[in-house]
Design goal:
The protein has 22 helices and no strands. It has 529 residues and is an all-alpha fold. Residues 1-16 and 207-237 have low confidence and may be disordered.
C-alpha cells in the first residue's frame, strides 16, 4: 500500500508539525476524559448514595451517560463533516465540562443523573471527533501510531478510573470525581482553540474536490462506483443540518437503548414497560427511515450501509462491542467468586488485556501492509474466537494465571482486529465523509455493548437460576461477595454462567468473522492523494 493521504491536507497543511503535537496532546487528554468518566463513578457509588440517597435509581448514573454518548455519536459525526471538527470538538468539550461542574454541584440523585446525561451529550463529541481528527492529522502510514496512542490512553484511563474514583471518594469527597475533569478539560480546550486551525470550507466546491480525489484509487482498491456515483445521494449544494433527523435519531436511540439497559433489571422483559418501549422504539425507527430518506443531507445517510466496506465494518465492530461484554462485565465476578481473588487481584486479571491490545494495534500495520486490512482483521478475530472458546475449557476452580493468559492473548487478537478496520474504513472516504463514517462504526460498537450487556445478562441469570433452583441472579451473587467467600454451589453456578457467556461471546466473534469474509471486499477501496 502506498502513502494514501485522502484530504489530510485539510488539517496537516494548516497545522504545523509542532502544533500538530499540541493538537495530539489535546486529543489524548480529551480521550482520557471520556474514558475516565465511563468507569470513575463505579467505586464511589456508596459515598454518593450515602450523601444524596436514591439507591433505587443510582444505576442511571451509568446508563444515562452511556445512552447520551451513544445516541449523539451520529449527530456529531454529521455536524463535524458539515461545519468542521474544531467547532464540534470545542462545543462538545465545553458541554462536557459544564456537565462535570453541575455534577459536582448536584443536590440530589435526580439532579446528578440529569447532569450526567448532560455530561454524556458532550462525551459523544469527544469520542467521535477525536477519532476523526486523528485520521485527518496523519497520513495512512502514520495512523497506527496515533491510534495506538489513543487506544493506550483509553485503556489506561478506563482501568485507572475505578481506582481514582475510590481514592477521591475515600480521602477527599466524591464531588472531586467530577471536579478533576475541569483542569484537564481546560488544558485540552485551550490547546484545541490555540493550535488546531482548519481552512474555511466551501460546501459547494468541497465535494467536487473530494470526487476528484476519489477517482484516483490506491493500487489495491476494488473497482466500482465512487460514492458520488451512488444513486440516491443528495447533492450538497449548500450546508444544511437535518435537525428533524437528529431529533428522531436521538429519540429512537434513547428509547431502544433504555429498553435494553433496563429490561430484566428494572422490570421483566415481557412486562408492559419493556414491550411498550420496544414498540415505541420500532415506531421511531420507522420514522427515522422516513425522515432520513427525504432529507437533503441526512444525519445517517444511506451510503453508510450501501457501501460494502463501511457496512461490513459497522457490523463487525457491533459484534466486537457485544463480545467485549463477556470479559469486562463477567470476568471480575468470576475471579472473585470462583478463583476467590480479592477485588484488586480480580481487576488485574481483567486489566492485562489493556497491555497487549495497544501493542498489538501498533504492530498491526506491519501485517495489513502485507495482506490488507480485511485479512488482518480476519486473522485477529479468528484467533479471538478460539481464545473465547478456550475459556469454558479451563479447569475448575483453576488458577488465576490461566484466565490472565487468555486475557493477554485476547487483547492481542482484538488489537489486530479493531485498528485495521478503523484505519481502513477511514481511508476509504474523503474529509467530508470521514466524521459520519467514524461515528457510524463507533455507534455500532457502542450499541453492540448495550445489546451484549442485556443478552449476556439474561443468559447468566438464566444459568444461575437453573443451577441455584431459581433463587439467585448475578446481582445477588455480586452483593454476597461483600460478605465473604461464595459457597461451593454458588461458585460452580457462577463458573457455569460465565462459561455460557463466553460461549455466546465466541458466537459473536464468529459472526464478525463471517461478516468480514462474506461482505467486506478483500482489498479496501483506499483513496489516494
Amino acid at each position: 500500500m502506498g502513502d494514501t493521504r485522502p484530504a489530510t491536507r485539510h488539517a496537516t497543511q494548516h497545522t504545523a508539525t509542532g502544533k500538530r503535537g499540541a493538537v495530539v496532546a489535546a486529543l489524548m487528554l480529551s480521550m482520557a476524559l471520556a474514558a475516565l468518566d465511563s468507569t470513575i463513578v463505579s467505586t464511589a457509588v456508596p459515598q454518593i448514595v450515602g450523601d444524596l440517597g436514591g439507591f433505587s435509581v443510582f444505576s442511571w448514573l451509568f446508563s444515562g451517560y452511556l445512552l447520551a454518548v451513544t445516541v449523539t455519536l451520529p449527530v456529531y459525526g454529521k455536524l463535524s463533516d458539515t461545519f468542521g471538527r474544531k467547532p464540534v470538538l470545542v462545543a462538545g468539550t465545553a458541554l462536557f465540562l459544564l456537565g462535570s461542574l453541575l455534577c459536582a454541584l448536584a443536590w440530589n440523585m435526580g439532579a446528578l443523573i440529569a447532569f450526567r446525561i448532560a455530561q454524556g451529550l458532550g462525551g459523544g463529541a469527544l469520542q467521535g471527533t477525536v477519532q476523526t481528527l486523528a485520521a485527518d492529522l496523519y497520513p495512512l502510514q502514520e495512523r497506527p501510531k496515533i491510534q495506538s496512542k489513543l487506544s493506550t490512553v483509553w485503556a489506561v484511563s478506563a482501568v485507572a478510573g475505578p481506582g481514582v474514583g475510590g481514592v477521591l471518594a475515600a480521602y477527599a469527597d466524591w464531588r472531586w470525581i467530577f471536579l478533576v475533569n475541569l483542569p484537564i478539560g481546560a488544558v485540552a480546550l485551550w490547546l484545541i482553540v490555540r493550535h488546531l486551525h482548519e481552512p474555511a470550507r466551501d460546501p459547494v466546491r468541497e465535494p467536487a474536490r473530494e470526487s476528484a480525489r476519489e477517482s484516483a484509487r490506491a493500487p489495491e482498491c476494488t473497482p466500482g462506483r465512487t460514492p458520488e456515483q451512488e444513486p440516491g445521494r443528495a447533492s450538497p449544494a449548500r450546508a444544511r443540518v437535518d435537525w428533524a433527523g437528529a431529533l428522531a435519531v436521538f429519540a429512537c436511540g434513547g428509547v431502544l437503548l433504555t429498553a435494553l439497559v433496563q429490561g430484566g433489571v428494572a422490570w421483566p422483559w415481557l412486562s408492559a414497560p419493556s414491550l411498550g418501549l420496544f414498540g415505541a422504539g420500532l415506531a421511531l425507527a420507522a420514522l427515522v427511515v422516513v425522515i432520513e430518506r427525504r432529507a437533503a443531507q441526512p444525519i445517517i445517510p444511506g451510503w453508510v450501509w450501501r457501501r460494502r466496506t463501511i457496512a461490513a465494518v459497522n457490523l463487525a465492530l457491533g459484534a466486537l462491542g457485544l463480545l467485549m461484554v463477556a470479559p469486562t462485565v463477567f470476568l471480575p465476578t468470576y475471579a472473585q467468586s470462583v478463583l476467590e481473588l480479592d477485588p484488586v487481584s480480580a481487576g488485574f486479571v481483567l486489566s492485562v488485556w489493556t497491555l497487549s491490545w495497544p501493542l498489538s494495534a501498533a504492530l498491526s500495520q506491519h501485517v495489513y501492509r502485507r495482506i490488507g486490512f480485511r485479512d488482518t482483521a480476519l486473522l485477529g478475530i479468528g484467533t479471538a474466537t478460539l481464545i473465547l472458546l478456550a475459556f469454558p475449557l479451563l479447569p475448575y476452580p483453576g488458577q488465576a494465571w490461566q484466565p490472565t493468559v487468555l486475557m493477554l492473548l485476547l487483547g492481542a487478537a482484538l488489537g489486530l482486529f479493531q485498528l485495521p478496520l478503523i484505519v481502513g474504513v477511514q481511508s476509504t472516504v474523503g474529509w467530508s465523509e470521514r466524521g459520519t463514517t467514524t461515528a457510524s462504526v463507533l455507534f455500532c460498537r457502542q450499541t453492540g455493548q448495550t445489546v451484549g450487556a442485556a443478552v449476556f445478562g439474561a443468559v447468566a441469570n438464566g444459568v444461575l437460576a437453573a443451577r441455584l433452583g431459581g433463587a439467585g441472579d448475578l446481582d445477588s451473587v455480586t452483593r454476597a461477595l461483600d460478605a465473604g467467600p461464595a459457597h461451593e454451589t454458588t461458585r460452580r453456578a457462577v463458573a457455569d454462567a460465565v462459561h455460557a457467556v463466553y460461549l455466546g461471546a465466541s458466537c459473536a466473534s464468529a459472526l464478525a468473522f463471517l461478516v468480514l469474509l462474506l461482505l467486506a471486499p478483500r482489498r479496501f477501496p483506499v483513496l489516494k492523494d
